Amino acid sequence: MCRILEATKTLCLPLPPGYHTLLSVLGVRCLPRHTFLQYVDHGVLQLTEPFVSRLMTDLDNSDANEELKFSILKRLPESMEQRICHLWDHPISSACISRDYVRGLLEKHAKTKVTLSYSASPGFRPEFLPLTFLTKILLDVEDRALNPFEEQENVDARFVEETALKQTLILMGFQDK
């Protein structure tokens, strides 16, 4: 199949629909993982959206399969990664969804240019003024922003918020992984 791919490239002939998906499926099933990933890196195999979405849903979350899924996610373009991330029920994909959600809220806030005061509310500790200010911005933006997950039925906004908070605590060293 690689020779067919090489011959069609040199002759500038079109490939049938689904050829790259079929070649990738054969590659992941028949080749050792490091060889498969090298072929992807060198452009011999292309990661198509049907292949990656099928791979994310078909493989279980064993250690070897998680490693393969991470390796494939790192090699995806950002636009495809955002669509594929929703298919994998894993804390890393939940963190990715949470980061995208917060990034969207902050971008929306930056467009509106709302000014907030630095005074701390009773529920926050005043010694962490930057954190208090960021929290107020996020609360204000969340109150005014439209929820981007309303269109999608399978995303729980509360779960995304809890995951984002847990990831923040882990990154700041307040909680173990």
TrEMBL record:
GO cellular component terms attached to this protein's record: trans-Golgi network
GO biological process: positive regulation of amyloid-beta formation
Domain Gamma-secretase-activating protein C-terminal, residue spans: 1-70
Pfam families documented for this protein: GSAP-16
UniProt superkingdom: Eukaryota
Name of the molecule in the record: Gamma-secretase-activating protein C-terminal domain-containing protein
Organism whose genome encodes this protein: Oncorhynchus mykiss (Rainbow trout)
